[in-house]
Design a protein that fits this description.
The chain is of the alpha/beta class. The chain has a 3-stranded parallel β-sheet, covered by helices on one side. The chain has a two-stranded parallel sheet with strand order 1-2. Helix 2 links the parallel strand 1 and strand 2.
Length: 136
């Protein structure tokens, strides 16, 4: 059945749809499992592309996966917002030059990781509010 979706995910995707914002999934998971999970959650069609750990040479915390996602979207990495829940992901996204928002899952970020993120927010609902206030 896939994995549980974070609260606010559909609200965020709807907001991005409304404003025609392209997006990709950048996950360390292998492509078949990532696609299964997205399909099981009914959100596979909500993303323009999926970049997975088995498609790149160096995984997170290297920036490769985020750089590949930006390239597939045909967007400069400095024009991207990366949403991450892991410390390795924050390091990867920030190294790629993306505006990095961490929404921790279970483990709160260390002070060093929190400093690498542009924002640390509690939920995807908060991400929606930030996007509305800052970019739309």
């Amino acid at each position: 059945r896939g994995i549980d979706q974070k609260a606010g995910l559909c609200e965020l995707l709807d907001l991005l749809d409304q404003h025609q914002v392209p997006r990709a999934v950048a996950t360390s998971t292998a492509y078949p499992k990532a696609l299964f999970t997205l399909r099981a959650g009914g959100i596979d069609t909500r993303f323009k592309d999926i970049v997975t750990g088995d498609q790149i040479q160096h995984g997170k915390p290297a920036p490769d996966i985020f750089l590949a996602a930006a390239k597939k979207l045909n967007v400069d990495p400095h024009e991207c917002i990366a949403l991450e829940d892991s410390e390795a992901g924050v390091l990867a996204a920030s190294t790629a030059g993306m505006y990095t928002i961490m929404v921790p899952d279970i483990k709160q970020p260390s002070p060093e990781i929190a400093a690498r993120a542009n924002r640390v927010l509690i939920s995807l609902h908060d991400v929606c509010e930030l996007i509305k206030a800052e970019w739309l």
